[in-house]
Amino acid sequence: MIKTVIFDLDGTLLNTLQDLAEATNFALAKFNYPPRTVDEVRTFVGNGVRKLIERAVPQGCENVDECLQIFKENYSKNMYNHTKPYDSIIEILKEMHNDNLKIAVVSNKFDAAVKELCEIYFKNLVDIAIGQADDVPKKPAPDGVFKAMKYLGAVADSSIYVGDSDVDVQTAENAKLKCIGVTWGFRSKEFLKGADFIVDNPREILKIIRSL
User: Do domains 4-15+83-211 and 17-78 have the same CATH topology?
Assistant: First the structure.
């Protein structure tokens, strides 16, 4: 029986892509770098915001740190402009809550943004939210997942991980958890190879969890 569900955030629970793209281009414009399309930014995300900026700036750029800082400042002020939960996400989280499931979010987005987004969009539905920080190595390292599980008193046999990318599949594998890959996020189905389950609709997550 599953008792704990650990979610990725961007591309899994929240569609954050437009706000990420706008903050990226705001930072790039400060240095007169060419803008990136939303589809380009889609391919850049998943490995943390520093990697996003490293991929977005022109090759050989030496001011990644300055660009990253500008991105973070702008994104922190504008991360609600277009961001919203995917269809049915709030409903299934409420049903999980009613089923007495523990819910965690583990993301490669910087920790302050992860906590704030979860507080705004999923207040009282997420038991713990963990983002990238100096003491939490980025996914696919399993450290964030283990930290969430420890906080919740969870064990691997009764926990499952849900995400939208190859990074998430690798994270689940490294944490020795079953994995549900979702197809509505930032990566195509090909990137979900290795997941135990692949779903096209959030309600399928609940069906799988209730069947295990």
Answer: no
Binning pLDDT at 50, 70 and 90, where does residue 60 land? confident
Would you call 129 exposed, middle or buried from its count of C-beta atoms within 10 A (0-12, 13-18, 19+)? buried
- Burial state string for 102-124 with b = 16 or more CB within 10 A and e = fewer than 16: bbbbbbbbbbebbbebbeebbee
CA 75, 47, 115, 63 torsion: positive or negative? negative
- Which pLDDT score is estimated for 64? 95
**The two three-digit tokens of residue 162, written as one number:** 């849900």
Tens of pLDDT, residue by residue over 104-149, are 999 999 999 999 999 999 999 999 999 999 988 999 999 999 999 9
* pTM exceeding the 0.85 threshold for the entire prediction: yes
User: For the chain, which residues make up each domain, given as ranges?
Assistant: 4-15+83-211, 17-78
Distance from C-alpha of 13 to C-alpha of 122, rounded to nearest angstrom: 10
Q: What is the pLDDT of residues 160-187, one digit of tens each?
A: 999 999 999 999 999 999 999 999 999 9
Identify the CATH assignment for 4-15+83-211 out of 3.40.50.1000, 3.10.450.50, 3.40.50.2000, 1.10.10.10.
Answer: 3.40.50.1000
User: Amino acid letter at 119?
Assistant: E
Write down the CATH number for the domain with range 17-78.
Answer: 1.10.150.240
* Residues 158, 170: Cα–Cα separation, whole Å: 19
